Amino acid sequence: MAQREFYVVIERDEDGLYVGEVPGLCGCYSQGETVDELLDNIREVIALCLEEYPDQEQPEFVGLQKVALK
Description:
By secondary structure, the chain is an alpha+beta fold. It has one helix at about 35-50, and strands spanning about 10, 20, 30. A hairpin with a 7-residue loop joins strand 2 (about 20) and strand 3.
């Protein structure tokens, strides 16, 4: 099987935990005390999401944009 790659959006929550979400997979998110722990956890969740929904299409990732409000 060919290697698949997924983008993970990472934020830090109010408790200091790193929270990651894969925008291309519905319901695919996890957390960890470190970025490395988060990435290990999110790999497991990605595998579970792909088992549950093997035919789920991954939309094209375009990018992130910061927007300012006045």
